[in-house]
Amino acid sequence: TIRHWSYWRFPLLGAIQVDGAVYRFMGEEANDLEMFAKQTLADVQATQTHYQFTCGSVQLNLTFTAPLLMDRLDLISRPVNYVSYEVRSLDKRKHSVRFYFEASPRWAKNDTTQNCESNSFSQKGLMYLKTGTKSQPILVRKGDSVHIDWGYFYLCSEKKGTQTGVG
After folding, report:
1. Where are the alpha helices (DSSP H) in 51-150?
2. Are 63 and 83 in contact (CB under 8 A)?
3. What pLDDT is stored for residue 162 in this prediction?
4. Does residue 126 contact residue 159 with C-beta atoms inside 8 Å?
5. Helix and strand element counts for the chain (H, E)
6. What does the alpha-carbon distance between residue 33 and residue 26 come to, in Å, rounded to a whole number?
7. Strand, helix or coil at 107?
8. How far apart are CA 57 and CA 68, in angstroms?
9. Best CA proximity match to 133, nearest among 119, 117, 120, 121
10. What is the CA angle 14-18-22, rounded to 5?
């Protein structure tokens, strides 16, 4: 679980369904129906972290990218991170695979009592989920243990049809 320096949790959840079996590769929420993916690699680089998991009969490769390049101020000032993934069959057969990624609205709140608005929309082949506080108190708070509660948290993905065969 990702934590703020004040120890508040900012949940992220990742799971993959392979031939009907669900494997969690990220997050701590308890669910007896899910199995944990077996992590086989963690490689931390300057702007990327690579993970590899075994999930039943497939291998899941995840790459987290933070484009913080010192010679690209337009990128370093943008609070954006990318998650890319690749799924490969380990037994050379086709498998039904579904990928699931979730972020809590907690990412856009200072405290749990604040009301949030969340919605989804699509644009130019991308699907967006957006959440943020209703009040949007821009730069109102100061002091210790203050979390962002203005602006919005976005989760974005390519809008594609269901891919049922990974081989």
Report:
1. 73-76
2. yes
3. 47
4. yes
5. 1, 13
6. 15
7. helix
8. 35
9. 117
10. 50
Tokens representing 100 are 């699931």
- Output the pLDDT for position 66: 87
Angle at 53 (CA atoms; ends 50, 59), nearest 5 degrees:
105
Q: Closest Cα partner for 117 from 136, 102, 141? A: 136
Q: What single string gives the DSSP state of each residue in 112-127?
A: TTS-EEEEEEEETTEE
Amino acid at 25: F
- Count of all residues that appear for the chain in the document: 167
Per-residue pLDDT of the chain (167 residues; tens, 9 = 90+): 666 667 777 778 899 999 999 999 988 765 665 688 999 999 999 889 999 999 999 999 999 998 887 788 877 777 778 889 999 999 999 999 998 888 888 888 888 889 999 999 999 988 998 999 999 888 888 888 788 788 888 888 887 654 444 54
Place of tokens 């210790």: 144
Is the Cβ–Cβ distance between 91 and 57 less than 8 Å?
A: yes
Q: Give the span between the Cα atoms of 105 and 152, in whole angstroms.
A: 9
